[in-house]
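User: Second chain of the day. Same drill as before.
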Amino acid sequence: MSRNKVEEAPALFIIGTAGSGKTSLTSSMVEWLIKKGINAEAINLDPGVEFLPYEPLIDAREYVDVYEIMRTEGLGPNSALILSTDLLVDYVDEMRKTLNESTADIFIVDTPGQIELFAFRSGGLVLTEELFRGNKAIAYLVDAPFSSEPMNFISNLFLEAAVYSRFLLPTITVITKADLVGGESIRNILKWFANKETIIEDVRTRYSAEKYLYVKNVVKSIPSLGFLEKPIITSSKTFEGIVDLYASVSRIFFGGEETRYGPPP
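Assistant: Same format as last time:
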């Protein structure tokens, strides 16, 4: 069955802190989907990325040049990245033409390395709302090596809740780089997600009384959101958890089917 062009493919936004594995997961997920016979297209919205392990349908670097902006505007790297991401909004109509010509079943959207460039600036919201017209969801990445430390884990919880408050889109929590940590670290992270009281106890046994009292008070302010309790463990290197991740994605977009029109041909 051919795609009705009015029904644009849904978009999954890959969001996370710098180094959390956004680009790697985008690449692995698109590769896995294509092997399954699902027509997936990668979208790169990071104008500052130097290397991509996938071929994007849309590449932000074709529309804005960070290094040219640094030269002409006399800006440093961070300021140039901010301006580049904001300027990308000016090309929404041009990028829309490319999306309209696509027959993809799903778009996997790789967002800027610095989370604030996309999640906490107006340009990110505009791109989300104006560039993609189909259903949308977020995969928020939790870097397993970084989040194995309780204080870092708590920071990630607040960041994920903040991202959700910005976009108010269905959100999936994805633990990345599982291949880089031991089983005990993964078990701890899962335990903390399932019962936040266990974070308080672990902080009490590991850190000073000052940190314990701080965490005891601050954990109570973390909102009770379902996606903060049911993470998916993944590894872009070994493809661990990709099937579980796409199962969650398909439930959001396709009611559990592999594509909008059922199993791929």
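The chain is about 50% helix and 15% strand.

User: Great, on to the next one.
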